[in-house]
User: What shape does this take?
Amino acid sequence: MNVDKAKKRIAKQVKKGFHGYPLVSLEYFGKTPDSVSEVVISYTEEEGAESQKQTFVSGSDAREDETIQSTLLKIIERADAKTVTEIDGISTLPS
Assistant: This one.
């Protein structure tokens, strides 16, 4: 799938807002605020349940990595997530 198409479909899910569980959350990490090297996707089945997390690492900017973005979209769709959230900005990784 085209990286732009995957990013648009993820953004559309995020814009819908909270509609209950299951919930998928995306957080981007990088050594600098301009480049994302890791993406952590969290899945929460129901309120109060512990989140399951998976990390994807990219040698380049993960936001522009077609494989990672397509995989994130597939996880969201297969989880039948009612809510998708995205942490604003880029969290910096410890040096």
